[in-house]
Amino acid sequence: MTPDLTADSIEPPAGREADAWILRRRGPKNPTDPESAYALLREWEPSPTGSGLADVWTVFLTNRECPWRCLMCDLWKNTLDQALAPGAIPRQLKRALRTLGDAPPQPAASLPISERHLKLYNSGSFFDRQAIPSEDHVEIARQASGFHRVIVECHPSLVGDLVLRFRDQLLNESRGSIAPCLELALGLETAHEPSLTRLNKRMTVANFVHASRFLTNHGVAVRVFLLAHPPFMSATEQPVWIRRSIEVAFDAGATVVSLIPTRVGNGALDRLRDAGLFREPPLEALEEAFEYGLSLRRGRVLADLWDLKRFSRCEACFGERRNRLEQMNWTQKARPPAACAAGCGSNA
Predict the structure, then answer these.
(1) What's the pLDDT tens digit per position in 294-317?
(2) Which of 4, 5, 7, 210 lies at a 20 to 30 A Cα distance from 141?
(3) CA–CA separation, 304 vs 326, rounded Å?
(4) How far apart, in Å, are the Cα atoms of 184 and each of 52, 128, 219, 244, 260?
(5) What end-to-end distance do the CA atoms of the chain give, in Å?
(6) What structural domains and CATH numbers belong to the chain?
C-alpha cells in the first residue's frame, strides 16, 4: 500500500491534494437548523453616499457547505452536508427579518442614519446553485424590497449572468421609491500570488480583477475581503502586501475594502501555527493597514472588529483602541492613536 504522504505533512500540498489535508484537520460542525439562519447581526456602516450611516441587517443563512476548501476558512462550521430544497432560504430570511426588525440597535453616536442595507451571507457563494437555489431568487428579492442595498458574497468564478438576473429581480420587486443596489463581496484575501495559491482559493489575482470589472461594468457594486497577515508571507512582506492588496482592490473597481485579521480555530491554521509557520496579527497591523486604506480616499475601508481583543497584548489601552477603530469605521476619518496608561504605546 502506498503511504499517504499528505496526512502528516506540516504544510498543505499543492493542487487538489490540499483539500484532503485541510479536511483532515477539521473538527466537528456546529448543529444547525435548515429552517433558521444560524446568526443575525445589526450594525452600522458608513453610507456609500457619505451622508451618515447605513443601518445594516446581516443574516447568516444556513445552507450547504461551500465546495471550495480555502485554507483559512472557518465558515464550514455552520453549514449543512446536503443541499436545501427550494423555499427553505426564503423561510429563513422571513423569520430573520422579523427578528431583526423587533430588536433595533442603539443609535451610533450622533451620526444620522440615512440608509438600510441587507447582507445575506451564506458561508460560501450566494450564486452557488447547490447553496441557494436560483428558484428562490425572486422571493428573496421580494423580501429585500425596502432596503437601499443588498450585499451577497460570491467566489469570482461564479460571477456571471445569474448575478445580473438577480440584480434585475431586485429592481423588478422593489416597492416605492427605493430601488435596491446589488453589491457583491469577493474574497481576494491577498494580491500576493504565491500566498493566494497556497490558500487553496483556486483563483488568481487576474481572475478576481476580471470578475470585479465585469460587475462594475454591469452596475453591480463590489466589496472586497482582504486578510491581515495571511500565512506564507514573511513579517517584512506583510505590511507591503496588505497595502498592495488594498490598491489592487480599488484599481479593480471596489468601492468597499474590508480588512479581516487572520485567525486560528479552523484546524488548518492551527497546524501551521503549531509548526511556527503562522501567527495571528498584532492589533497594530490592522490599525496600520486601516490607516493606509483610509489615506487613499478611493472608497470605504472597514476594519473587522469581531473578536478583536485576541489581537491585543495590552489590557490597559485595548478599549480605547477598539473605540478608535469603530469611530474610524463610521466616519472614514483617521483619528489620533490611543494613549496607553500602562505606557505600552500604540504597538502593544
Answers:
(1) 999 999 999 999 999 999 999 889
(2) 210
(3) 9
(4) 22, 13, 11, 21, 17
(5) 52
(6) 17-280 (3.20.20), 297-348 (no CATH)
